[in-house]
Input
Amino acid sequence: MDSPYIDVLPFLFRGLGWTLLITFTGLVFGFGLGTIAGLARLSRKGFCRGAATVYVEVIRGTPILAQLLFVYFGLSELLSMNIHKLAAAILAIAVNSGAYIAEIVRGAVQSIEPGQQEAGRSLGLSRSQTMRYVVWPQAMRRMIPPLGNQFIISLKDTSLFSVIAVGEILYQARQYYSSTFAPFEALTMACLMYLMITIPGSVYLRRMEHRLEGR
Amino acid sequence: MIRTRGLCKRFGDLTVLREIDLDIHPGEVVCIIGPSGSGKSTLLRCLNGLETATDGEVTIDGDSLNTTEASLNQLRARLGMVFQHFNLFPHLSVLENVQLAPRMVQGKTVEEARVIAEQLLEKVGLSDKAHVRPDRLSGGQKQRVAIARALAMQPEAMLFDEPTSALDPELVGEVLSVMEELVKEGMTMVVVTHEMGFARRVGSRVLFMDEGRILEEGTPEMIFDHPGHPRTREFLGKVLRMS
Ligand SMILES: Nc1ncnc2c1ncn2[C@@H]1O[C@H](COP(=O)(O)OP(=O)(O)O)[C@@H](O)[C@H]1O
Ligand SMILES: [Mg+2]
Output
């Protein structure tokens, strides 16, 4: 077992666990945030719309690495407590993906024909009932492909978190080659590790898109 | 039972309805005809509060539509509406389409709502389609489901906005016969339609709308056979030439 291609694998698999944990947990919170912000952007209340727009624009207009450092160091200083780096990483993914998911939510809800809303209201359903039982289930279906896309983006974004020594894939690769001096091999395998998820992911997404268009 | 006084509707600079005074009495079948863009749909939408009047008043049995959101929802539930493009809920089965409002608005149980829905689907001749998604239905079947969906709320009146205009000619009859069935039961109806035959058979009154006004109204015979206004004559001429 002297080939670095093989040697690095146990490290990378440990990293894969962290990467998936951060991505999934971050996206679950990001979906919550994004749903709130996306619906707020469609709200009739100017304040809700304004607040959501500021959030979306600020996050989309700044690099995720700056957001991570803000959460990890900035917030720690502000609250004078140590934020765990895993928590910081998850929070960064949540806040960052939330802004993009907000736009996905808004677009999907707006893409539902106004006639659906009218039919709901004409039956006596309230605004929120119409959203919940008529518009949202249809919008959810349209959100699946862009949400899958966001998953792939966020997954790759976690690699930036090696700067605060979160043990995700890329960090593990760096650890490995700093002691063995085999960066080419380690990075090749790390990239393969990402591709192992992202390529089947996008193939699956494309199939799903076709299926959704077909009906 | 539905009454408008001085009803005006503007979208920005565009005035769509001008000073509409309209009384619809229980059991009446009022047909509205008029050129495209004359404000027929907007008028119907003002009657059930889907649009808010810019000016004037709409009342249903004396209850003003100018009220809180919550009571407006209740008022809306008292009028059924059928749209040109059906607007069925595509993610729900036919049965669920019909069940939704009774469950969510009237608080009926699934079981109660199912009984109502099944009766209505039988009435419109679609019992065998209960568990099918709307995209598997023909246009005529979709519109019959839409009628059943509106009836499920046991409305006091039904508003129809060109219910047969989007249908292939051979499917128009099945929808009209369901509507005529409702007329026989005494349902109060406001129907935007260019089906002259239907209006003649069951209409109590025909209104001719043009540029946001009711230019002329009368019995079907009066309007179709002896139109008073030149605009009405011109319009009827065009419609008759097309059909
Ligand atoms: N939501 C809206 N915003 C702006 N203009 C509208 C809106 N709804 C209808 N209109 C306009 O109002 C006019 C009347 O429309 P409508 O009531 O649909 O006429 P009809 O049903 O008689 O064809 C049209 O010129 C239409 O473009
Ligand atoms: Mg119209």
